[in-house]
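WARN retry 2 of 3 for item q-0093 after timeout on previous attempt; input resubmitted unchanged.
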Amino acid sequence: MKARLATVLAVAAPLIFLGCGKDDGPIKPPTPQPIVYPDQSTPKNTVLRMSMAVANRDSVVTASVYADDYEGSSNDLDGPIPEAFTFTKADEIRVIGAMALSNSIVSVDMDLGHPATWFQHHFVSDPPDWVTIEVPGYRIYVNDVDLGEFGMQSPSAGETRIFEFRLRPTTPDSTSPTDTTWTIVRWTEIRNLN
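OK item q-0093 returned
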């Protein structure tokens, strides 16, 4: 028995003291990598930047993507009385800031799909320099341990959704690699059951 214990200690001793030199410190967690947001040099970059800011609960970057005169609208056409909500730039910033300060929100995901799947066009009724980005497929999910889970996605069986952003350029802008910065002026969401 003593021989067996001596053998175990002889094998284990180097493992026990391995890494205990005077230069070794406690194991430190890895340093988180900074989030690299796309610039606002194109309309699609700006929409992607906005979605990343929502997912990261970054109210500062959220403020950068919306024009001061931004108007958002969400319309649910289902039901006996259609519901419509409107939002300002301050509302969008406040929502993201509240999510960032919340201790109960575990995760936020705003997946708008790859920008290559988005449609970019111009509505004749808009000013000539405005561009519309229509997102045909998306998934938005918030997990809050106190309030529960919230999710929506499109496409979804039995309903039609329109999810689009209208953007306007600011030119010249020396901070942009293209001399133009795009900001979101309008956001429209419309939901209707088929």
